[in-house]
Amino acid sequence: EIRCDRPALPRVGEHKVRISYNGIDTSSTFALLRIVERAVISDIKPQKVQEGAEVEILVEGMNFLHTPDLRCHFCSGVENSGFNLVSLAKWIDNSTLTCKTPRRMNMTHEGRALVSISDNGGHDYSNSIPVEVTARSNFVSMEPSLGYNEGGTTIRLRLGNLRFYENLFCVFGDDSVPARVESANEIVCAAPPHSGETQTVEVRLMSDMVHTLALSLFKYMSPPIIRSILPAVGPVEGGTSISVFGVGLSNVTHCKFTIGSSTTATVQAQHQSDFSLTCVTPHISDQEADSLVQVSHNGHDFVGDALYLYRSKPRLRSLSSPFGSDLGGKLIYIHGENFMSTSLTMCEFGKVLVDANYISSTLLSCDSPALPIGMHSLQVTLNGVDFSNSLEYESIALPQIESIHPNFGILGLKSTTVVQLRTTRLPTYHGLGCQWSNSTIITPATRLGWNLASCMAPPGLDTQSVVSLSINEESYSDKPIEFSYVVEPQISSITPDIGVSGSAVEVMVTVQDLEPFLHFNLTCSFGGSGVFEHASVRSKSIVECPFPAKYNTLDSQAPIVLQISDGVNTRQLHSPGMFTYRKKVVIASIFPLMGTIRGGTRLVVKGSNFASITNMMCTFGSKASRPIFVADDEVHCLSPEWKGGPRAVNVG
After folding, report:
1. What three-state secondary structure class fits 344?
2. Residue 205 in contact with residue 165, Cβ under 8 Å?
3. pLDDT by residue (tens digit) across 370-403?
4. Torsional class of 490: left (φ above 0), alpha (ψ -120 to 50), beta (otherwise)
5. Which residues of 77-89 are buried (b: 16+ CB within 10 A; e: fewer)?
6. 114 near 47, Cβ under 8 Å?
């Protein structure tokens, strides 16, 4: 290999090149050297490039040769510093070629690079033209990095050192859309629509569709579908955790609540599955309102048309009854405000939820559940999550009847019987009652003690009935006690029906239908005195009443009163006929004191109180004759015949 400096040649064309060892003799063989016109650069486009960017530039000029050694040369123009780089050139015609700026080309202090071309691999160069070299932009972020296939997602690209740019475009795969400058370091563009399934595409921010300012990835996906939300109602204060159900909910990041056209609030979503997520309702307004609920995978694009109702929280005022059986089943009416009918309107007794029956905005009803004995809070919810203020509700044990006394009453519309009930522990609430005949009749009951009450049996129309305890007209005894009705006893006769002061007479009182009352306390009263003496039972229908001989102030005629007491009720039976009371008859004298045994002697009997005697007879020993009444102090008696010889007899 021999290197030679080419001398100046006078003309363009091919020249033979030979070698010589002595300057005189030349080689017999030669090589052809082609001398051409010097390449001249007149313009370069673009005239501004970014450092580190491989940008294709268009070089215009003249005398460009189509050779395999065609090159573009980039240098800083500063010896021993800067850069000196070469890139392949692509010949287009004699006046046009393209080449790419080297990635290693950095911005210099002068902020420029000198560009020249060579058609022989760098041995000879054209003139040089400067291009501006700008500092490379620093890509910081792009958000969001995903959006829905419908397009329209607003993309924000943040870059540092963004200074020299023109005609900005965002290129999503093969689709480009215009971009605009939002601020000194932020570029905004809208993602174009995308057809197909989920796909990730390359996003490039381009200047003049030549310079790539930023490069990132963007994921296209199908939008989620909301089927329902639960609960769909909650308090205006917010704070309710709601579940959103649908399809494509995986990785949803946000829920948005919109009232009207401008009032919105966005909250974080908690992912659960592809079919559900949860989020907490925000406080948007102090007024009741209907809110549109939407979801998003990127916090920017929201889809969905679910409706959530902001409503005032229910407030409880009072209960129809503050207590109920521990076995449950009691209908409780709840008075308050802000009630509404939803699928989740419920009452909470303690920790037990039961469905509520909506009646009006101020009235609900609930059946009490089985609860432990004791005090419990009662609250209302419209959504199963948020609850009203609470009222106290007491679960009580069923008061059971252990025995009743008496266990029967009197048939008839006018009959009244007070019944005492021995029970288990009784509550102290008002409204205690006795429930008769399978819940058809309720009479008030009086609490006499912790396990004792009394009530009035209703008039009896049937011979058999049952009695149980009730509170506020609701039955609380699960084991009713039988109660029967019997015919009221009646006195049919008295024997004898007359008595004389000072004489002891046992009067037999015959009573119909007395048998059920025989074990009760029986007493008798004579002559309207109101003084009752013990009576003795002689049979199922006969009672023996002793005539009170010691009393001297009895009415001359009055019914005998038979009093029947069971310790609770006292009944008085009056004899249909009068019992006659007579003063004691006194005989002062008789005349004559002797008569024949043939009889017929008229005796004049003097004395007192003769008029008080009915069915008067004169007695001569064991014989009797009917007297002749003369006056209250005188009667005449005819002596009867006497057999057996003379003798003395008592005259009465």
Report:
1. coil
2. no
3. 999 999 999 999 999 999 999 999 998 878 888 9
4. beta
5. eeeeebbebebeb
6. no
Nearest to 335 by CA among 389, 373, 288: 389
- 482 - beta bridge partners? 466
Query: Residues 565-613: pLDDT tens digits?
Result: 999 999 999 999 888 877 778 899 999 999 988 888 999 999 988 876 7
138, β-bridge pairs:
160
d(CA 109, CA 76): 9
Sign of CA dihedral 597, 600, 605, 611: positive
How far apart, in whole angstroms, are the C-alpha atoms of residue 268 and residue 290? 20
**Distances in Å between the alpha carbon of 394 and those of 324, 331, 425, 428?**
6, 14, 15, 12
Average pLDDT over residues 421-426: 87
Angle subtended at Cα 538 by Cα 460 and Cα 535, rounded to the nearest 5 degrees: 75
Q: Which two tokens stand for residue 472?
A: 């506020």
Q: Could you tell me the CA-to-CA distances from 647 to 177, 308, 620, 621 in Å, in that order?
A: 164, 127, 11, 10
Give the whole-angstrom CA distance, residue 455 versus residue 426.
14
CA–CA separation, 74 and 53 (whole Å): 13
Strand pairing category for 56-62 and 96-100 = antiparallel
Is this prediction's pTM over 0.90? no
